[in-house]
Amino acid sequence: MIQLQHVFKEYRVGPVKVTALADVSFEIDKGEFTVLAGPSGSGKTTLLRLLYRDEVPTEGEIRVAGYEVTRLRRSNIPQLRRAIGMVFQDAKLLPGRNVYENIVFVLRVLGTPRREIAPRVMQALKAVGLSARAQALPAQLSLGEQQRASLARALVKEPALLLADEPTGNLDEGIAEEILDLLREIWNRGTTILLATHRATLADQLKRRTLVLERGRLLKDKD
Amino acid sequence: MFLFLIEEAVRDLRRGGRVAASAVLLITLSLAALGAFWVLSLNLGRVVAQWRDRLRVVVYLREEPAPGTADELLAKLEAVGGIQRMRYVSKAEALQTLRRQLGGQASLVAELATNPLPPSVEVTPAPEASTPAGTRALVQRLSTLPEVEEVQGGTEWVERLAEFQRLLQRIGLAVGAVLALAAILAVTTATTLVLHARRQEMEIMRLVGASEMVIRLPLFLQGLAQGLAGAAVAVGGLYAAYRLALPALEPLLSFTLGLPRATFFSPSEVAVLLGGGALLGAFGGLLAKGGRPA
Ligand SMILES: Nc1ncnc2c1ncn2[C@@H]1O[C@H](COP(=O)(O)OP(=O)(O)O)[C@@H](O)[C@H]1O
Ligand SMILES: [Mg+2]
Question: With a threshold of 0.90, does the pTM exceed it?
């Protein structure tokens, strides 16, 4: 599902070069649940952004969901992104639309046939346990509920791969736990998941394969 | 899909609020100015065409030709060339015409001891001679004939009118162009604001894999809608002004310029104005910068 070969990423900030990733190589199979761990600034977000082609690597090869990401033409980027669901630390919900409309938005943007929209949105809401809050505006939701809505939005297009960048970063421990349980459920239904987190305890507790980054280098890859 | 894009554009217009309204207003102003000059010039053009068409050169004769020799004289006139048609007007006929024109005061004519009006020939220049230069040359040639006292006619004032019409067109274009530029800027500003309000939507759209076209099209559509609205208001306003001014203007026009009816735009000209507005708006919408491409 994901393959990196000798990936380097340098950011140039004025005259200064910041090495965010250095010689990172790994492979993730379809159906795996992998944790990407490492302290703040170790390059986790950068790595995820390379995967959905928000940034291009300075060097190296990347393959995601059958796409040669590094050689992808600009006009084909949307196709890659349709295959990937994304959630972030903040839910990024559109404030003017209720939960239901936020999720409908995605399907309409992607030109999904009208008939299919309502059932798929309902199903996504049910999968994250938010059916009862469909008519609520984002501001009326708790942070945990907002993150659930964000997950529903990522899942409604039925991605093969889910990238989660610190999805529990804003949440209290109990609520974070719930979100992690939810991710496990999603994984159980067949979605490949890559979860980035700086919380070492959280990574341990999940008991899954963990890639550890430090200062842009892949430190260890443990099962 | 298309419905979705339109819904998004409407949402943008509502968010654009006052700036969008002022953009519409500027488009209205620019097209109204352009349109006003255009209507004026259109009607002036008709005056010019009509007068060119009716153009006559009148040749006043020194004396009435002897009975039966009028045709001979006409043949001599025709020989100078550039003449399409001629009509001989005798002293008596001229007096008749005057009497008719005076109407109620026709009795004045009866008090005249002798007929003071000269005989004349009304000459219609051939089409190739009815340019200003051609007419001037024809007048020149006719004046040299010994039987001719004076030649009147020519196109000087019609040409001055035509020049005025061209000037009007140029002013209209210049004023319209400046206002159009302002209108494009206004739409661009309005769209930039919309872009700003819309950046969250655009970010989500890019993340989930929308094509660039789907991301930009609502912006283009809301610009287009602003332009179309402005143009519609402008055409409506001009038409209202035209209907209001018509009763006062028409007798004046008819009396001074001989134009019986002032016209408004034809449907195709209205379409040109509306299309122009839509183009202005769409262009402004496209020019708006912001939102980094994927
Ligand atoms: N857009 C950017 N421009 C310049 N430097 C960046 C940019 N994004 C990240 N960095 C730098 O790259 C390094 C890795 O950052 P990041 O990938 O955000 O780490 P993490 O997500 O693990 O906290 C950091 O030193 C950060 O300052
Ligand atoms: Mg990060």
Answer: no
